[in-house]
Amino acid sequence: MTRRGFVTGAGAAATQGHGHGSEHKHDHSHQAVPSDLTLRVKALESLLVEKGLVDRAALDALVDTYEHKVGPRNGARVVARAWTDPAYKQRLLSDSTAAIAELGYGGQQGEYMVVVENTSKVHNLVVCTLCSCYPWPVLGLPPVWYKSAPYRSRSVIDPRGVLREFGLELPEDVEVRVWDSTAEIRYLVLPERSAATEKLSEDQLAALVTRDAMIGVAKVTLPQAGAQA
Amino acid sequence: MNGVHDMGGMHGMGPIQYEKNESVFHARWEARVFALMRAMGAWGKWNIDASRHSREVIPAAEYLRMSYYEKWFTGLVDLVAKSGLVTPAELESGKRAKDSPKATPPLTAAMVTPLAKKWNADVTRDVPVAPSFKVGQRVRARNINPTGHTRLPRYARGKLGTIDRDHGIYVFPDTNAQFLGEKPQHVYSVRFAARELWGEQAAPRDSVYIDLWDDYLEPA
User: Fold this and answer.
1) What value does the mean pLDDT take over residues A71-95?
2) Which residue has the higher pLDDT, A163 or A109?
3) Which residues of A are annotated as catalytic?
4) Among A15, B7, B99, B147, whose Cα sits 20 to 30 Å from the Cα of A181?
5) What pLDDT shows up at residue A71?
6) Residue A105 CA: distances (Å) to CA of A207, B64, B115
7) CB–CB contact B70 A37 (8 Å)
């Protein structure tokens, strides 16, 4: 196979014999199977490298950063600090971006942060109905379900039903607040600290805090056994 | 635009498909598309609003069928072509045109880590623009139906809400996406009662907070 036509997909369609007429020659063919997509992406990358538009080492560094260096462990450190240091918690709720930066986290898709606090009476849930906005520096890149139609469509109209799908049944007297990330502000949920975690250290607490709890689709719970040491 | 991407409140999209211990990328090509998008963005030939719009204009049926990074790839091809960074002939052949000078990439590997940690998103503006609304004020989201990019979701249009906080001054996506100017203005977190949005089926005290630009709102 050659590179020809693979960037736009025209070649892929021709190879598969979809019979596009010449009037459709420049349409994107969206019938590519995954292997064709692999080839089309490779073709685009090769072309951009050949033109000097991108540096392959920079691409590798970007992938490595978001695969290994940025992720929900960052957010968990923020939450654990807020749970153990009341003054930090105050700063986190009043100037979230600056308080998160105190722990060394910030940057792309986390430039303007707002932290919202879950309590026994208020439950917060974060979504982006229009695309996939998500606080990268503290949570990493979003999971597929967060970016997908079922979650994006229903979390605003039926948040309690969505939470039930995640196994979380909220009492009627708990107020649900959904945050639709329509601008450049990114939201992080500060989960409610369970009384059962009273004796845990900051590090032990950080290990308990999950990505899902910081999106607001789960609570932070103790594992069945062992963690109370 | 009233596209299928604006899906808040829709039914029929199926159950949430949760994957345990999900990896960051599901195939190498996804990782490459992600990195290409970031690296090409460094040319400054488009902005985040134009980038979002490049995915919104994918035809609705295709938008719903495509995986996330397939949409990104489609948008990226569109952006590099429209910006003139790559010619249609080059996209067709996969080869650099002989008369095209070789460029120097603006993003190097050494820049990646500092940028991931500290980055100026360049969407706020330090200009004196007065807010039209105050915290606590009742507002109505305008009933507008622009055919271009907008961040006012359909489910909020015409609905009454309350200004919960003023986030400061940001570039306006509707004009910025089309390179028609930044039109900096205040963005507010606006609280809408769930019953105002969805009627009696919603729980009485629940609410949805939506970040909305000044131009999307009118006094109520």
Assistant:
1) 98
2) A163
3) 128, 131-133
4) B147
5) 95
6) 18, 34, 11
7) yes
Q: What percent of chain B has pLDDT over 90?
A: 90
Contact A157 B197 (CB under 8 A): yes
Bigger pLDDT: B101 or A56? A56
HSE-up (13 A, CA, CB side) for residue B178: 11
A27 touches chain B (CB under 8 A): no
B124 shares contact with chain A (CB less than 8 Å): yes
Give A198's pLDDT tier (boundaries 50, 70, 90). very high
Chain B residues with CB-CB distance to A20 below 8 A: none
Tens-digit pLDDT profile for residues B53-79: 999 999 999 999 999 999 999 999 999
Q: Provide the pLDDT confidence category of residue B122 given band limits of 50, 70 and 90.
A: confident
